[in-house]
Design goal:
The structure holds two protein chains of two kinds.
Chain A (H helix, E strand, L loop, with lengths): L9 H5 L7 H10 L3 H20 L6 H8 L1 E5 L15 H10 L4 E3 L6 E3 L2 E7 L4 E6 L13 H12 L17 H5 L11 E5 L2 E5 L7 H4 L10 H5 L23 E7 L3 E6 L13 E5 L4 H9 L14 H7 L4 E14 L9 H9 L3 H9 L4 E2 L20 H14 L11 E6 L2 H18 L3 E6 L1 H10 L4 E7 L6 H4 L16 H11 L4 H18 L2 E12 L4 E2 L15 E2 L4
Parallel strand pairs in A: 1-10, 13-14, 13-15
Antiparallel strand pairs in A: 2-3, 4-5, 5-7, 6-7, 8-9, 9-10, 11-15, 11-16, 12-16, 17-18
Helix pairs in contact in A: 2-3, 12-14, 18-19
Chain B lengths: L1 H28 L13 H10 L6 H13 L14 H36 L4 H15 L2 H15 L15 H27 L2 H8 L4 H13 L1 H16 L2 H6 L5 H11 L2 H29 L7
Classes of the chains: A alpha+beta, B mainly alpha.
Chain lengths: 577, 305
Amino acid sequence: MAASQTLPADHADQRGFGNPDPSAAVIRASRGKARSVNFWRSLFLLVGVVAFAGCGKRETLVESGNRTQVLHRSVGQDLKDLDPHLATTAADYNVLSALFEGLVAEDPVDLHPVPGVAASWDVTDGGLTYTFHLRPEARWSNGDPVTAQDFANAFKRVLTPALAAPNAPALYLIRGAEDFHKEREKDFAKVGIAAPDARTLRLTLAHPTPSFLSQLNQAVWFPVHLASIEKNGSATDRANTWARPGRLVGNGPFRLEAWLTGQEIVVTKAATYWDAATVRLAGIHFHTIEGVDTEERAYRAGQLHLTDALPAGKIDSYQQEAPGQLRIDPLLNTFFYRLNLTRPGLRSVQVRRALSLGIDRNAIVAKILRGGQLPARAFTPPGTASYTFPVTATDHAAEVATARQLLAEAGYPDGKGLPPIELLYNTSENHRLIAEAIQEMWRRDLGVEIRVASQEFNSTLEARRSGAYDILRSSWSADYIDPASFLDIFRSDSGNNFTGWSSPEYDAALTAAGRTAVPAERNALFQKAEALLLAAAPIIPVYHYTHVFVIRPEVKGWNPTLLDHHPYKTVWLEAAR
Amino acid sequence: MLRFIARRLLETVPVLLIIVTATFFMIRFVPGGPFTSEKAVSPEVLRNLERAYHLDQPLWRQYTTYLGQVLHGDLGPSFKYPNRTVNEIIADKLPVSLELGGLALVVALGLGLPLGVLAAARRNTWLDYVASTTAMLGVCVPTFVLGPILVLLFAIHFHGFNASGWYGPADRVLPALTLGCVYAAYIARLTRGGMLEILGQDYIRTARAKGASELQIVLRHALRGGILPVVAFLGPATAGILTGSFVIETIFQIPGLGREFVNSAFNRDYTVILGTVLLYAAMIVLLNLVVDLVQVWLNPRLKFE
């Protein structure tokens, strides 16, 4: 904290800190009169000095960052680990993608796969075999070349059961990977991963998958430097402490400098990165700030170039006072309710559809959320890799009329005779407001009375697992930009279905879509599947999230991307002159 | 006195054992687990995870294993932070909480004691009213209001401090003030009450009659007895400051143990819950012992027994 010499002494006075003029206070004290008054004089003096010192015009982190090309961004909660194979949340990717680079990377504008460690690739065997040609100049941060064997080692590590990598099933795309991971096959040579030489990696898929390259942009597909991991213990021991400053060897555009747990992760530009010439940032500080209000205050105090989120209550004031700093980006994330199909009442498809139609989504989005969210009449957000489910926008009065008719058909005219239903949400102010609004909409328009209840998040997940719910607030975000990332969760064999709904027709349409390379045919199959899902209504989509945050104008190249991924090598800072 | 201390320390052992046992089994009955998330992990992965952390063994076996570990000073691995042990997390975060708590105590005593003494010495004057009102305000204004106000004023308006973080010495000022002020208010009220009681006693009148100055009476004769209620309050208060700093840690983004403690419960990070509960329980027991010792030292009418 540096005190400024240039600040006028009456500055503190104007701010209501009493008389900061020291001479006046000292003279009065020396007279020994009115002692209690003098006590207050001295106290004001003290406070005045503190305020004065506080007025010092220090350089903020943002200002010094602008000068030195160091980005200060907040990423919300601290990461649990920097091991890319143990990463669990979407936010982890935002740090790990600075430290590691996969076979492909992401286009900074629309995130389509572009060459990463692989300079090029050939697809043969009708989409079954991918041969990646690795660039010779790719280096680990310790100077070692990044080889095809490194990738093979990494994939083997992920698939080894002892590591218990949470996202290991993502690798089931590779032939034999599922059997190896499920310990039905012990011989890793049977898995479709081959490294005929240091520069060539051949992956054989279980079935043709047009979205394969997009899916590679998840942390679980990142390579690791096995030799440096093994210096700290077994590579498949979760407790291995290799992913720490001074030990972590990565191959991304940045290297790990420091990790102050609960505070920040600091990375600096890696001179060893093959495309270092493109990287303009000298470093990034990932501030791990948990509270959204704390984060916003840090932003205003000049400690952050951009926040991870913005409290809904602040949207209006930013819109009025600093509209240039407020960003509302689309995001592949849907808020929906799961319906438990084993519950009486909810067994009836008419009831389920009536409940869905009885929600005035526009009102929820416009009156409660106010952050540019889109009302969801389908599960997959519009514009997910050229796919948009065609929704015929009818006015809500017509929807309500249909809903009432459906209820009557189900034998519950005006909701009479419907078994009691409870809507369960995980405790959160927004979830409560939405649940109560919907409770009122159903009561007013359909005559359906429901109870709303809240539980702490982890408890609602247990209710979901054990089926101890009627209607459950849920959300789903895409791992990669493809409708399958959404629709796959309601397949019969999905571990994330939880509704009790299954449809062989739905599964078949998705399986066919997964293997069709022609985009139009693929989208038609996804549409067919989604229509089945919406008609059966085991879920009620409510709205598609947006990513609301604030960002300083100095940050350049921060494009609105659907997954909130931002390839850092094309981001830079430019202070206004 | 040594016998007293030794006996009290021995009594601690069964207390801690009961706490650990109750916590161990209670957290297992809480719905959810350490590996549940919005995106459910596959059954194979879950099985692998449970195997990695020995959660596939019978509960009683896990319990005895855990007790054995604890006796060797090993609080086990964290389930949520794969490459961190609970010992490491506590070693990392406890010093931060201790520093914050210590500074807050200094603020609390530094503000609270003089304010209370002043109010009692100038009883029923405007000075007393101002001091008492200030103390009342301090009791009423919660930290989650005071903290953000201080940040708005000194970090955002005057740019004198960081709004959050725990990097340099300056980052200690606002959190310590916020946490300290609330306790200062309590201490001021207790000091005032204690002092008033003492100032009305015969030996004070005697001292006055012998011509002792007002300053001497307050500082030499009355203060020692007057702060007895404060000392009794300080035991639980210190424990409260050290364990209950969750709100302050969130407001100012301080990497302390309080946040870890609360988050571990939400995360169902069983070993971290157990480790922090054990630590806090031990701290509370010890602090109460210290308070008892200080009380006996301050009050000649009390004896060790």
